């Protein structure tokens, strides 16, 4: 995914006693990074609501063109900013393109201001200055003092409802602004329509429809106040229309109960006593206002903010306790930060009654599963979904069922590419839902109709008019003339085809297996053996002459260069190694990737890659080479895998505000960290094997569904002892450099014996 600013939520060190109550020991550090971003705020694991502060209101466009500065606000929050505009209810975590930021609320007092103002003149609007010294972020809870208004803001959430608590000073002019125009990656025409209905002096419902990354997205809401407002009003910023109807008979700006338009901000006014608390419950629904109200009444029926906060933190406590580790203090911070990030997305997309909006824009009911959205699949198929197959298998089962529902409702009959609020935003390449489906089937996680799932995968893989698939099928590669990302698409399709072959093999579909295992070898058609790199190939069969192996821009790859992508054959490292000249040359090539220097000029035009995420020429801050450090295992040099993995863990993940060396991409960077910290990694999802590496934990206990426990222990663990002397599985020597999924899910113990000296053998 594209990269932007990072907001790190970092967990502090946990004592042994804390392991039974992780959340109480969580004091997240708020931070940022030159790449990537997440957000502070209140959400539940996989919750529909992600209630968080937004620190500015930059437009996606400037003078009719893309505004590069908006890239820093993919999550709405930028650590360096000095002001907060308000608190909105939906956010993406760690993506580098964006949307959402729905329904921004801002408490103010004093003269009513209905514009947000600007960062350099904050008092010209309703935004407020704030200080990180007066800011607290915990799992399920956020607090900040709004200095200009002398208001303390607190946020918590249930799965579908955000809860606000604002402590006001004494004032006859206290306000709650509801900004229905605000959004992330916003522009003037993004809001298609907004409707608000004031039911009474403490309940408001409505919806808004936007056209952005999701082309057709409608979100319904119900908003309830703990204290009746004394008055209310709105300002409509719509451009003057040729025809406005006869609503002009009414004064719609003041105390009028039915509001509609494209660009609306509302205000609700109160008298407040000194230190009086006004609370707001704000429920979301993808289906209707009635469902939003039902979500609110079901999940947060009362007004006990602290109880809701405690419930949220109890839920986080439950999830974070699924893995308990013993490690250095810094590694504990990193690990539980990663675990938190991994459990934010995908997000629940449905109401308490099971209803959700489908890709066909109709209301559906999830039968026997929870419906999810926010599938950033180009990123998350690599490690996040495999991680779920171990730690969240029931949820991942539901996620696959959500993908199948997406397929059933798709007018194009395709599985999701990037699922987003009853839309596919078609971002990135490949059809990696088939990887997630294959991994779940091969590992026994998916309990649905596997034959139908295979049919959906095949249909998607044969959609000829989608991003070069027809030419790929006919020619065995995508010609450079047809696509600016012809090489990376070819490589990704080949891997996905291998995944389809694994499902077919599992189901005994030999003809399907033969077809797709052959297609999985198409990577060879873009490998130029004369230079030893993947390279754009023209329709006449020749390789493109003008080619730069270092550049990440205009060379046939998406978010990467050929140095990184030339190792993207996770389905068949043996054949790739043979093509590159055998074990020694293959290992030497990986050595060069990690030790070379990639000058800034070669990624200057690719905003997704910056220096912080690069080691040599290896771009860890982006995903395509995440498996590469483990390929030394195939080259008979596992000690180099161990060395590189531990180096990456230290260099790219730090317990500091700028501690993540790249965009988290909805949990992919975090899942890489957790797998690698535990000592194994899914090089090729769709396989039942994990490649062994070098654990950074001293020990870990994984609480698996069904009551089984899998333990990891690293004897003689230290920062210097990165090399593995031997590995025991349940007390028996483990030969080879991998472990099977069943070895973990059956429960047991994996023991690494660590040393400062590598074991060099000719495996």
CATH class of the largest domain: Mainly Beta
Query: Structural class of the secondary structure composition?
Result: alpha+beta
Strand content: 15-25%
Low-pLDDT parts are: 1-21, 24-36
Count of all domains? 3
Helix fraction by DSSP (H/I, runs of at least 4): 10-25%
So, CATH architecture of the largest domain? Distorted Sandwich
Strand order, sheet with most strands: 10-11-12-13-21-17-16-15-19
Give the termini separation.
36 Å
How many strand segments?
A: 40
For the sheet with most strands, the description reads: 9 strands, antiparallel
Radius of gyration: 26 Å
Q: On the 0-100 scale, what is the average pLDDT?
A: 93
Number of helical stretches of at least 4 residues: 17
Any idea of the CATH topology of the largest domain? Beta-galactosidase, Chain A, domain 5
Global morphology:
globular
State the gist of this model.
The protein is an alpha+beta fold and 763 residues long. It has 17 helices and 40 strands.
Tell me about this structure:
The chain has 17 helices and 40 strands. The chain is of the alpha+beta class and 763 residues long. It folds into 3 domains: 6-316, Beta-galactosidase, Chain A, domain 5, CATH 2.70.98.10; 469-547, Glycosyl hydrolase family fold (Up-down Bundle), CATH 1.20.1610; 564-763, 2-Layer Sandwich (GH92 mannosidase fold). Helix 6 (393-409) packs across helix 7 and helix 8 packs antiparallel against helix 10 (486-507). The radius of gyration is 26 Å and the shape is globular. Residues 291-755 form the Glycosyl hydrolase family domain.
């Amino acid at each position: 995914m594209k990269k932007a600013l990072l907001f790190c939520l970092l967990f502090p060190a946990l004592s042994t006693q804390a392991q039974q109550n992780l959340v109480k020991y969580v004091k997240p550090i708020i931070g940022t990074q030159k790449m990537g971003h997440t957000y502070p705020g209140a959400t539940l694991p996989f919750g529909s609501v992600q209630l968080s502060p937004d620190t500015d209101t930059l437009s996606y466009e400037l003078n009719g063109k893309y505004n590069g500065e908006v890239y820093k606000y993919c999550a709405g929050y930028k650590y360096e900013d000095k002001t907060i505009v308000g608190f909105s209810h939906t956010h993406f975590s760690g993506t580098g393109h964006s949307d959402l930021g729905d329904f921004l609320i801002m408490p103010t007092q004093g003269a009513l201001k209905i514009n947000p103002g600007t960062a350099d003149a904050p008092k010209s609007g309703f935004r407020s200055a704030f200080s990180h010294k007066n800011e607290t972020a915990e799992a399920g809870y956020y607090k900040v003092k709004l200095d200009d208004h002398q208001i303390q803001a607190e946020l918590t959430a249930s799965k579908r409802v955000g809860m606000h608590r604002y402590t006001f000073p004494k004032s006859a002019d206290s306000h709650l602004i509801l900004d229905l125009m605000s959004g992330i990656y916003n522009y003037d025409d993004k809001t298609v329509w907004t409707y608000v209905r004031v039911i009474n002096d403490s309940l408001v419902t409505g919806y808004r429809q936007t056209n952005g990354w999701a082309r057709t997205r409608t979100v319904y809401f119900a908003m309830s106040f703990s204290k009746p407002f004394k008055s209310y009003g709105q300002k409509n910023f719509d451009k003057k229309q040729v025809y406005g109807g006869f609503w002009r008979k009414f004064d719609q700006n003041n105390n009028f109960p039915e509001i509609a338009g494209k660009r609306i901000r509302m205000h609700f006014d109160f008298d407040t006593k000194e230190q009086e608390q006004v609370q707001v419950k704000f429920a979301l629904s993808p289906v209707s206002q009635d469902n939003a109200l039902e979500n609110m009444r079901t999940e947060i029926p009362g007004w006990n903010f602290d109880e809701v906060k405690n419930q949220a933190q109890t839920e986080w406590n439950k999830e974070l306790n699924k893995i308990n580790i013993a490690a250095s203090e810094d590694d504990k911070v990193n690990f539980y930060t990663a675990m938190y990030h991994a459990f934010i997305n995908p997000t629940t997309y449905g109401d308490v009654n099971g209803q959700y909006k489908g890709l066909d824009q109709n209301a559906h009911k999830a039968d026997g599963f929870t419906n999810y959205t926010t599938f950033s699949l180009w990123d998350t198929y690599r490690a996040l979904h495999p991680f779920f197959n171990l730690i969240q298998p029931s949820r991942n089962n539901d996620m696959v069922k959500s993908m199948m529902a997406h397929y059933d409702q798709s007018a194009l009959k395709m599985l999701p590419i990037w699922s987003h609020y009853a839309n596919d935003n078609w971002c990135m390449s490949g059809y990696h839902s088939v990887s997630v489906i294959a991994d779940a089937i091969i590992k026994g996680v998916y309990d649905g109709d596997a034959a139908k799932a295979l049919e959906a995968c095949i249909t998607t893989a044969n959609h000829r008019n989608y991003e070069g698939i027809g030419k790929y099928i006919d020619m065995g590669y995508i010609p450079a003339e047809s696509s600016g990302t012809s090489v990376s698409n070819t490589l990704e399709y080949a891997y996905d085809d291998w995944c389809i072959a694994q499902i077919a093999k599992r189901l005994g579909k030999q003809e399907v297996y033969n077809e797709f295992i052959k297609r999985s070898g198409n990577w060879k058609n873009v490998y130029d053996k004369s230079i030893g790199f993947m390279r754009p190939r023209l329709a006449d069969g020749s390789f493109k002459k003008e080619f730069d192996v270092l550049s990440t821009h205009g060379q046939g790859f998406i978010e990467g260069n050929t140095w990184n992508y030339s190792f993207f054959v996770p389905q068949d490292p043996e054949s790739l190694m043979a093509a590159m000249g055998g074990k020694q040359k293959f290992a030497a090539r990986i050595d060069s990737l990690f030790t070379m220097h990639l000058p800034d000029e070669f990624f200057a035009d690719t905003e997704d890659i910056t220096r912080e995420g690069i080691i040599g020429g290896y771009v860890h801050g982006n995903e395509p080479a995440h498996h590469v450090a483990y390929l030394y295992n195939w080259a008979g040099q596992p000690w180099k895998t161990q060395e590189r993995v531990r180096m990456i863990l230290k260099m790219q993940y730090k317990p500091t505000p700028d501690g993540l060396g790249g965009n988290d991409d909805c949990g992919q960077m975090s899942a890489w960290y957790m797998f690698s910290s535990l000592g194994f990694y899914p090089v090729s999802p769709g396989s039942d094997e994990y490649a062994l590496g070098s654990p950074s934990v001293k020990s870990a206990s994984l609480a698996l569904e069904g009551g089984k426990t899998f333990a990891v222990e690293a004897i003689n663990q230290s920062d210097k002892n990165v090399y593995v002397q031997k590995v025991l599985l349940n007390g028996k020597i483990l030969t080879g450099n991998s472990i099977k999924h069943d070895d973990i899910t059956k429960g047991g113990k994996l023991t690494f014996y660590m040393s400062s000296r590598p074991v060099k053998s000719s495996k």
